[in-house]
Amino acid sequence: MTSTDKRNLRNGLLFASPWLVGFCCFTIYPIIMSIYYSFCRFDAITKPHWAGMENYHNLLFNDPLFWKSLWTTFYMVIFGLPTALIFALFLAILLNQKVKGLALYRTIFYLPSITPVVASSILWMWLLNPQIGLINYVLRPILNGINTLTHLSLAVPGWLADPHWSKPALVLMGLWGVGNTVIIFLASLQEVPEELYEAALIDGAGATRKLWHITLPLISPVIFFNLIMGIIGYFQYFTQVWVMTRGGPEDSTAFYALYMFNNAFLFFKMGYASAMAWILFAITLVCTLIVFKTSSKWVYYSGETK
Amino acid sequence: MRSNVKKIVGTLVVLAFLGTLLGLMTGCQLIHPKKKKTVIRYWTGWTGVEMESQKRIIKRFNEQHPDIEVQINTVASSYEKVKIAFASGSPPDVCSAIWADDLASYAMRGALTPLDAYIEKSGRHGDEYMPGVWNMFQYGGHIWALNVTTNSSFMLYNKKMFRDAGLDPEKKPRTVVEFDKVNEAMAKFDKNGNVLRFGLRPSNILLWAYVFGGHWYEPDKRLVTANDPHNIKALKWLASYNRKYNCRKIDSFNQVYASGTYGDQYAGLYGLLSNQVGILFTGEWSYDNIRRYASKDFEYGYFPAPYPEDGGRPNCLTVGGSVFVIPKDSKHKDAAWTFLNYMTQPEQIKEFCMDISNIPPLKKVAMEPEFMDIPMYKFAIDLVSGPNAFGPPQMPTWPYYLAEIQRVEEKAVFGKQDPEKLLNELNTKIQKDIDIALRDAAY
After folding, report:
1. How far is B3 from chain A (nearest CA, A)?
2. Of B388, B392, B362, nearest to B149 (Cα)?
């Protein structure tokens, strides 16, 4: 290393130091300490007491709510995320058509994403109210019609008041906030070269074939990106249930992050919560790695041949 | 030449940054070099009307105490911020953003200053407070907190709806059997099972266990008593409502009128005022809201939680709310007590409670005509100062226990699981939890 290199390194570090100091104190340090705390009985007020694997052992073997919250979270990742992605892609394709008033539609579908989550959650509590909510107001006459035609007795769902419907209610609510994903999809759709569609058209391909053989492969890196971000986001699902249900009814919306927060800040069990955080980290990591590994099978980068 | 300029600029930038950092760290001292006043940092969870009232009282305090300056800050409803402040080792000097439910948790961990010596030195006495309220300030033989306001809770009912249902509106249900009959008369559903009219589905096993003669914890023996036979009986009674009626439908019916939806602009009273919800479990704060929102011909009455005649407790209720503490790590404990002592004097408590339409926890203040002359307040004060007002158990794992109690109630009522089995399991689980927690206890 020449003296210029050294000087540059020093100056560079100095200039980056405000960020570096902050990053070390407020990010790296807490992360390292949380590993330590996860092996301790720690209430965040008194000194931690070393407890070895106790927290992990209790979580895995003595805490049914841990497993339930894990399942609830996986439910959203398995059902909520793909639904949201498909819906977002569908919207993006619609918004990519050449129709009148396109800018207006784009704005309308993007608007919900700039609403704060707390505000939109309260709004959705109204929409999902089983008795006076708009959703059931629309559903009721439809179901009544079906009932008279078929002699069934379908009833409107209880949504957040019913443990069987509370998770689907959250999936439904997730569809409303896909604006950001739509924007990213839309940008990638506009990158797809027009001549490929023209070539396909000459070969006699219909809309479905064009979608399947041209659009999807060409935007697959973006689908991949949204999938990874979605997995990470859905594993941390918290605000909506904190505002709307606090985990109820009957623990049906007791998400992992919510249970972790309760342990850390309500039950004085910071050590236990730290252990939960590291288990969640491991799970998120494994899921992300799996998606990464499989990505070579379905993600196409331009210039590549498969 | 150019490299020199660069060097100078670079050095200046770094210096400016360090200077800012230094300034931030020592800021207050630099700006106020000769500070004689003791600054008391006071954190509250109150906002709005409560905050305004507190600010007025504190302004007066600061004028009357030239050597102390109290600075008030609100954490709004984020009481977990207080926990983080305690964890950081620099909590406020006085804090009222602590739930009575959490008090023993802080006390057991040695995070608070015991107030016994201060209380004695200032000539204060425990019997100034209502006994149920005073009891919730204690843990491990010490006093850890005081408060400035309390609440009462009871049933408010709509007389017209009683009449419509063929009930005598002057005959208030005294026992649970009578209460069940009122609900039977009130209940009205449409052909889809939607609620058109209902009385009240009893919920909150925490309270009803006390009403049925049970309890949750024995502090002296450090014994969890979740499966007390009375608790089991109470939970069975709550669960019986989901066998007779569809409680999910009742809840979503009530949700329509609860605060958060329509109810907000009517403070949760809309269902009662619009003749659709027959009975509401509420408290004395409804008095102001009824005056504000009810139509002139609205007739209402109130009665305490009905109880079973064999072994139940009449006039039963739970108390709680925010309490004032002095953290152990406060730098100015004496000044903090001066402030806390001032806030809990009759004059200040009266002013605050009148501002926010609450009940004063001091017996002497509650007896004053401003409160006693209002019949609903007199009723509420008699309840909360009676022998069957229960604060949170003096138990350092209570927040966790409480959350688990609520889960058990859901499982029993909606999951239709066996109440006895659930409470037995809960008992074992919580006993284990408290035994571990008390191993490292400071108090």
Report:
1. 12
2. B362
For domain B38-151+319-390, the CATH architecture is: 3-Layer(aba) Sandwich (3.40)
Name the A residues in 77-106 with CB < 8 Å from any B CB: none
Residue whose tokens read 């639904």: A83
Give the pLDDT of residue B276. 86
Chain B: closest CA distance from residue A49 (Å): 9
Identify the three-state secondary structure at position B174: coil
pLDDT in the model for residue B313: 96
CB contact under 8 A, B253 and A131: yes
* Contact criterion met (CB < 8 Å) for A155 and B436: no
Average pLDDT over residues B39-49: 93
CATH number reported for the structural domain that contains residue A135 in this entry = 1.10.3720.10
User: Is a pLDDT exceeding 70 seen at residue A84?
Assistant: yes
Amino acid making up residue B272: L
A126 touches chain B (CB under 8 A): yes
Please judge whether B105 and A268 are an interchain contact, meaning their C-beta atoms are less than 8 angstroms apart: yes
Outline where DSSP puts E strands in B56-205: 68-74, 94-99, 138-139, 142-143, 154-158, 188-189, 195-197
Cα dist. B15→A7, A119, A200, B421 in Å? Answer: 18, 44, 64, 68
> pTM of the full predicted structure?
0.87
CA-CA-CA-CA torsion for B33, B38, B42, B47, nearest 10 degrees? -70
Q: Residue B359: helix, strand or coil by DSSP?
A: strand
Say yes or no: B190 contacts chain A, CB-CB below 8 A: no
Report the relative pairing of strands B389-390 and B317-318 from DSSP bridges.
Answer: parallel
Residue A204 is assigned to a structural domain of this protein: yes
**How many domains are contained in chain A?**
1
Closest-CA residue of chain B to A45: B87
Minimal-distance CA residue of chain A relative to B17: A18
The reply to whether B154-318+395-439 shares the fold of B38-151+319-390 is yes
Which residues on B lie below 8 Å from A158 (Cβ)?
248, 252
